[in-house]
Amino acid sequence: RGRFTLLSGSLDKTIQVWDTCDGTGATLWKGLRVNDLRVSQSGDTVVAVCADQRIVVLNLGYDDVTGALGLAETYQEYFEPGKVSSLYLAANGSLALLYCDDGSIYCWDVFEQKIVASFTGHRSGHFVIRPCFGGHDEAFVAAGSEDSKVYIWHRSGGTKPIAVLFGHTGTVNAVAWNPMDPQMLVSVSDDHTVVIWGKDEDDDDDDDGASSLLTALPPPPSPAAVVSSSGNPSDDSSGPPPA
Q1: 62-68 long-range Cβ contacts below 8 angstroms, 24+ apart
Q2: pLDDT value of residue 108
Q3: What is the pLDDT at residue 233?
Q4: 193-198 and 226-228 as β-strands: parallel, antiparallel, unpaired?
């Protein structure tokens, strides 16, 4: 309501709200240690992955009388496959990508409270990987991998990825699709580079976008397409998944 706010989850078992104008904060929810959280694009749903293999979904809104921002818990669900260390929420807030400590990736229906797809073929299990939805209508899932590659699947899942991108020399920790350009994907790696992936200029336009994101700009990555970290190389920054 006229101000910008930031939500944060914490090891102290709280979700805090922060006023980005004056830096003041307040506790909106308390219950479990929060490993990761996301807010829906509409701003009314918060999904958090917590300790004890819990997924917590909350409604975010303002009190009609006081105008104070608050969280109301919708449900907690025990996630049977394992502990979730990272989370990505679809733009409409209905689907979430869950990355587990054992390296498994699942698509979770937030409203139906069930797994609707899983994704295999990548190599993971030692570090936290952050997958994402993307492409036209968020029809694809992308994820980094400990074998230095980026894997892409159809959102419906499957045992094999539809594409594997080569451009890094270290673990690929996170990927992000450009929300304004479904043909642009960015990946970051422990090799201290950011690689921008885009449409192959030799490809004809297609309807589903499946072939439009398979080429680095250009291969091998050039200084124009790669942002390298400055300073001396450091140890692997991924670190193990949180205990």
Answers
A1: 62/1, 67/1
A2: 94
A3: 36
A4: antiparallel
List, as one string, the DSSP characters of 53-120.
TEEEEEEEEE-TTT--EEEEEEEEEE-TT--EEEEEE-TTSSEEEEEETTS-EEEEETTTTEEEEEE-
Q: Which residue range is the domain that position 146 belongs to?
A: 120-243
**Averaged pLDDT, 36-57:** 91
Number of domains in the chain: 2
Asked if 162 contacts 154 with a C-beta cutoff of 8 angstroms, the reply is yes
Could you tell me if residue 96 is inside a domain? no
pLDDT in tens, 165-216: 998 999 999 999 998 888 899 999 999 999 999 876 665 554 444 444 544 4
For residue 103, tell me if it sits in a domain: no
Contact 155, 177 (CB under 8 A): no
Tokens representing 152? 């892409």
Given 40, 73, 89, the domain boundary residue is 89
This prediction's pTM:
0.77
Structure tokens at 210: 């499946």
- Name the domain boundary from 71, 89, 107: 89
Q: Is residue 186 part of a domain?
A: yes
